[in-house]
Structure formats: C-alpha cells, structure tokens
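Fold sample X.
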Amino acid sequence: MMQPHAEDCQERLQKINAEFEEFSYIVSHDLKAPVRAITNLASWIEEDLEGTLPEDSQENFRLLKNRVGRLEKMIQALLEFSRVARLQLETGAVDVKSKIEKLAHEVAENRELKLTISGKIAPLETYAEKLTFVLGELLRNAIFFNSKTQPEIKVELQENAEALQITIADNGPGFPETSLPKLFTMFYTVLPKDQLETTGAGLAIVNKIVNFVGGKITAGNHPEGGAVFTLTWPKKMPSAN
C-alpha cells in the first residue's frame, strides 16, 4: 500500500506535469504568429531588394528563412508534444498488419522497399490515431535514415492477453551506442540538424504517447546491423478523462 507521503509526492508530480504541459501548449501556440511574421518580413525585404543584393546577402537570407522554417517546425512539434493527452483519444479498430503495410509504403514513397511481416495480431480496439502515429514514426525512422538503395524492414508481431508486442528492425546504419540513452529526448538527432530535414521530435512524441497508454518502447541495434525498436502496446486503454 502506498504511504501518504508517497501519495502526496505523486499528486504533486502529476500536478507539475500537467502545469508543464499547459505551459508548453500556451507558449508553443502563442509563438507561432510572431515566428510566421518574421518569415513574411524576411520575404518582403528580400523582394524589395531584389536585383540589388550581393550574393553573400542572398545566401544570408536563404539561411535566415531556413532557420526560421526549422523554428516553426520545432514549435509545431512542441505543440504536438503537449497535446498527447488532449487530442486523438477516439477509439477505433486497427488491423495492425494492414496498417503497417499501408504506412510503410506511404513513407517509402518512390523508394523500393522490402517489407517482411511475421506473426499475427487480431484487430484491436484502441486509440487508433495515436497507434497510427507511433507506427508511422517508427517506420519513418527505419526508412528515412537508411541510405541503402533498397531499405529492408522486418516486422514481428506478437500478442498475449494483456498487450501487443511489435518489433521493427531495419538494415540501416543503426545507432551509436552513446546515442541510445538520448533517442527519445525532445529535439535530439544523431546527426547534426543541418544535415537533416527533421526536428528530432518524432521519437520523443512516440515515447510520450506510449507512456500515456501504459506501454513501453525500447531502441537498440541488431547484432547483424541495423536498428531495432520494440513496442509494447496494451490492449486496455487508460480513461480519456
């Protein structure tokens, strides 16, 4: 049985977390308009000076718009992070195998992809949009950071009475061992952000969603090479309240 002091600490922690989420939501929401105004102002100045700007100034404008664009994406990601327990709480049936097949080919776009799915999971009544987001981000990570001509993804599906277990392995470069403890940190990227078109927020949002539903997500490297994510998703969802 939990002691009164421990219960009090837990209640305080929950209150602090709720206040932080509210703060993050308000700040990220209110920052969107002024950042958009900076983008517009830079474009107007560039248009006014068109034909008179030296090459280095043109490059500076390009860098400015690029950095502001990245900031906009980071603000949007922070907004999505704060909304995890607020939105997309409607339940619906999900055929996990079909969903993975659809998402993988959407993420791959025109790239040739080898997708292998083993095991079977019965259709699940769950927070459908949240599970879709999680699966999409894990598949995106397996494809987007894989420079091979044909990305290869192996998915293993298992279930028991309490939860699903979904393992997603790829034939990409894997992760540096020093990066593994930081993978689910907000805005963390293995490579410098200047080399990537990503905010580094996807896996942090995935982790928060999985924690919210009472599941578990781990990341590691396959002995034969490539990254491996293991997702445990409970069959019983927490109350939307």
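Fold sample Y, listed below.
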Amino acid sequence: MTSAPETKNSPGANTAMASLTGIPQTPVLPSEGWLQNERELKRERRKQSNRESARRSRLRKQAETEDLARKVESLTAENVTLKSEINQLTERSEKLRLENAVLAEKLKNTQLGHTKGILLKDHDEQRAPADSTENLLARVNNSASADRKGREDDELYERNSKSGAKLHQLLDTSPRTDAVSAG
C-alpha cells in the first residue's frame, strides 16, 4: 500500500479516506471568503471604470460648454457689429433719400424754370414781332401820310397806301387775312 501522506494528496485519497473514516468528504471548492474577495475586486474595478468614464464625460461636457461659450461670445460680437452696420446703412440710406428728394426738387424747379423760360421767350418772341410789326406799320403809315402831304402825285400816294395795306395783311395772323394776302 501507499503511505499516509501520499494518500491524502492523491485524487483517489478522498474516496479512500471516506471509506476508512466513514464520513463522506466533498471535493475541495474555493472558499466563500475567496469568492467574496473576487466579487469585491470586480466591484471595485467596475467602480473605478465608472469613475474614469464619468470623469471623461465631465471633461467632454466641460470642453463642449467652453466651446459653446466661445461661440456665444463670437456670435454676440458679430451681432453687435451687424447692428452697428445696419444703423450706419440706415443713416446713409436716410441721407441719400433726403439728397434724392432735394435733387428731385431741384430738377423739378429747373424743368419748371426752363419751361417758364421757354414760355417767356416764346411770349417775348411772339410779342417782339408784334411790337416790331406795329413799329413797322406805324412807319409805313407815317411815311404814307408824309408822302401824301409832301407830294402832290396821287399815283404815288395810292401805291404807298396799297403797300401799307398789303403789309398789314401779311402781318395779321388770322386765316382769313392769310387767304386774302395769298390771293
């Protein structure tokens, strides 16, 4: 047979001892203390992993928050700049509107003045020939009467009167006199 220390360590020793002592022996399982330690270690590793994940998440959120704060700051500055630019453009637009109104008024006045000038010029031109016509007619009439007094020749007087009458007819602007003078 084998020695006692050998029988304890051999695999068949448990069954042999059980038959010798009469008490059944269970195979050796890891102790509950050891299992408890394993669970605690796993729990601690999981806790540590969760802490690291939470820390990374906090850092990521902090970076996002800082990035958003920078964007807000940038957009606020851009908003202020755009509002200032809008105000400047509004002021410039108002100035241009006023300037445009002034120029339109000047143009209107210039056109009215030009029209008045043309009308006055036309009126003066129409009146001037009438004045000169009256002067011419007066001279013709005066010369006709002077000829009548100064000359005894009836034929000459008749010729001058007829030319004065014809001159009156030519200078009148009515259609009737135009037809008579043409005939």
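Sample Y note: The radius of gyration is 66 Å.
Also: DSSP finds five helices and no strands in the chain.
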